[in-house]
Amino acid sequence: METPIPIRKIIHVDMDAFYASVEQLDNPDLMGKPIAVGGSSKRGVVSAASYEARKFGVRSAMSGVLARKLCDELIFVRPRFERYAEISKMIRKIFFEFTDLVEPLSLDEAYLDVTENKKGNPSATLIAKEIRQKIKEKTGLNASAGISINKFVAKVASDINKPNGQKTVPPEEVISFLETLDIKKFYGVGKVMKERMYRHGIFTGKDLKEKSFEYLEEHFGKSGAYYYNIVRGIQHSKVKPEHTRKSLAAERTFNENISSEVFMLEKLENIATEVARRLQKSKVAGKTITLKIKYSDFTLQTRSKTLPLYISSKDLILENVKDLLFQEKMKDSVRLLGISMSNLNNEAKKKEANPPPEQSIDVQLKLDF
């Protein structure tokens, strides 16, 4: 039995260069200048870059050393996550003025389902415009938005007219929009997958759409069904206001490599304190504890154990981390340590599965967007 694509009105709101824009907002002397939020040391990493810095090729997750080489005038600013969280709360408050179906992805972006909304406004395009105006008025910051029939298309669309713009892809234009899009602009297609698709002659959405389900499944495994569906505008994942946490973690990268377990224990105590704080804030406990170790040669090792009871206190976390630390000798000095708690005592929710592709058909529907 063929099933039409469910049509919803989804908005993806994405703040423009959020961390960097907050720093420029709070310090007008930084306005219009290339800035990077993060560290400039050999261990430093760029968390965010202003649009002025991006013109030089500076990007998030880039090393501070490389960023400095790309832009001599780059100004590094230490991150202030409490401030970013404070503004994020103001922005989410605005979202809830329009709908309770808000799914935050991070501090600076979220999905909103406005199919039915508190304003009674039939136009998702106008709602997105109003939301962006309110964010500007309340925070002084710019936001971009994508509006379409599902989360995937809305997220892809929010990048089209950045910064400080929005793009609506109504139902009747979804297929043509996706067909003409460069495959690297598909959300979820990273650098590695992009190169892999290029090797299969897939450069645009149209190229992807021409591949059969069997072909995609054969060459891309389980992801094949996902790609087969999304290029046809098919995605049944709803906007989920609440996420069930699967794990909670904290980690620290050190300025100097550590070779002594005594010093490691000191660092792990601080990390365990943070993990316990996050567990208690989320009102959960966990059974599985994992110690993450990154050595000076960048090799990564994890050591885990599952307990008979749920724990959330710092003392119990640290006690078990000690066991993991001394489980075997370190093979080298250490540059990063992390602790994570999983197997949490919250109810696991079933993942929504896309229906088999043969049960779905392309549709061209008219709807007020």
Automatic annotation (TrEMBL):
Keywords: Cytoplasm, DNA damage, DNA repair, DNA replication, DNA-binding, DNA-directed DNA polymerase, Magnesium, Metal-binding, Mutator protein, Nucleotidyltransferase, Transferase. Its cofactor is Mg(2+). GO terms for cellular component: cytosol. It is an enzyme of class 2 (transferase). It comes from the Bacteria. It catalyses: DNA(n) + a 2'-deoxyribonucleoside 5'-triphosphate = DNA(n+1) + diphosphate. The keyword Transcription does not apply. Belongs to the DNA polymerase type-Y family. This is DNA polymerase IV.
